[in-house]
Write the structure tokens for this entry.
Amino acid sequence: MKIKSILTGAFAGLMLGGAAASAQQAPAAPGRPDVKTVGDWMVRCFPVDNPNPCDMFQEQVRGDEQSRQRVLTFSLAFVPSMNRHILQITVPLDIAIQKGVTVQADTYTSPVMKYRMCNREGCFVQTAPDNAMVEALAKATNAKINIVADGGKSFALPLSLKGFSAAHDDMVVQARAKAKPVKADEAAAKP
């Protein structure tokens, strides 16, 4: 129950952080995240007291400036007090919810990850991946997020791994320096 409570708080932190996806690379103003671009990834650290204040983020969009449509967001955070990662993947609506999502990188394929919720922004997977996924992404040259549409058609959404390893290392260092530790009694008190 303790881990579930901590992860629920960590996911809430990611959700709050996701709203700032359009932040520019600049020193953080009060209330704004500090964002650094590493390859095709953004490393973001939010000015909040949280066990996971930093994540690495990538967004895939389709269309021009007028018709921009988000196709995929991928956010990976690190919780130093648990020595674990948390992952949030967002895909568009009109997907086969029961089919879930897999992450594939070179010779690695993740277990099927179930959607946690959908809203007007899309459908979300929120999970604590095993270290094998993170290690596979760090070593791989190509990755894709596999989804299934409502009509049954499968799609492989490309995920750039350019800069993944360096962004991950930077995010972990910053998370360790900025994270607010979770006290055992605080985690036990949350539902």
